[in-house]
Amino acid sequence: MSETPVHGAHGRPPTRAERWAAFKRSPFLPATVLVLIISAAAGLFAGSYTYSMANPTPHSIPVAIVGNYQPARAKAFIGGLEKALNASVRIYPYESREAAVDAVDAQKVFAILDFRDSGRVVTVDVAGASGASVAQLLEQTTPEVGRATGVSVTVRDVKPLQRGDPRGLAVFYVSIAAVILGFVGAVQLSAHAEALAPLERIGFTVAYSVLGGFVIVAIVNWLLGALRLPFGQSWPILSFTMFTCGMVFTMFKTLFGRWAMLPTWSLMVLLGNPSSGGAVSWALLPSPLGTIGRWLPPGASVNAQHTAIYFRHHQHVFPFLVLAGWSLVSCAVFWFWRHRHPGGRGRRPAHAAA
User: For the packed helices 72-85 and 132-149, what is the interaxial angle rounded to 10 degrees?
Assistant: First the structure.
């Protein structure tokens, strides 16, 4: 006669608390959490890009003014442009066209309005390299405003994009590659080289960043010829980006252990990439994203790379300070709390030494 199986230490069914304790010890808890996180991340990923890129709208567009913009027709043209764009046009007067072009190269303004003949004629110089979406918007809008206000309009692109980058997205994709592979490299080091000591981990992060940045330039520029990259600036920017993103993941790994990918993905991909200004110019992004994006590694990388390619003689220090700040903070957190990082080679117990 078979016996009925019993449960628990004393032959009773497990209590709810015991079942929950067993579930927490099992692999099913992290698997269930991952199902929920990935499902939420899928929606947030699609939502973040849709929010920033589906309907880009200008809020304030800085333009340089050359000539007399006080006549009635010139004022009417500017007012009509603001109405058509549903945005304010910030005016920066310049005494000469050369000074205005220099302001475009310094990325202080997106366009130049050169008024002649008491405001009856205006030349609109756009800069596709400053922001393809903004340039296209001005190219479409200014002739219509001119017809409505009786102003003759001529539109020119004084800083066009490269032939292999007609929409200005190549810089964005190149930077995305550096951002994602930067932290994916750190993920793989944690998974396959767990025994690395702290300095060794930083050293190998430097190694794959330097080599990875070089390979990106080699493929995009030399092999494909899709984008002419200034090697002396583009390689260091891409390598710096990869290192920064790799150390950001390492920092989060130190702080959050196996859940480090959650804050890394949120910061770099959900928030950082849509707000980087690479796919949609900062002038057309929702105001909070346009502001936040400049202070995150993806935005800093796009900013520095874009300037290196199209405005190489007007490179700014700000994006490099942003990357340096994230790198220093990440390295400092990792180093001071390195005992919390799951990697590293442990010391041999004293009794095992012989």
Answer: 130
Query: For residues 224 and 218, is the Cβ–Cβ distance under 8 A?
Result: no
Nearest-angstrom CA–CA distance, 336 and 329 = 11
In contact, 327 and 250? CB cutoff 8 Å: no
Q: Which of 239, 185, 189, 238 is nearest to 210 (CA)?
A: 239
- Residues 206-254 have pLDDT tens digits of 999 999 999 999 999 999 888 899 999 999 999 999 999 999 999 999 9
Is residue 268 within 8 A of residue 175, CB to CB? The reply is no
Count Cβ atoms below 10 Å from residue 206 Cβ, excluding itself.
15
Closest CA to 345 of 225, 150, 196: 196
Of 56, 37, 68, 79, the closest CA to residue 260 belongs to 37
Write out pLDDT tens, residues 25-63: 888 777 887 788 777 767 776 766 566 555 566 677 899
Strand partners, 113: 65, 124
Rounded distance, CA 91 to CA 96, Å?
A: 15
Count CA atoms closer than 13 A to 239's CA, side-chain side: 19
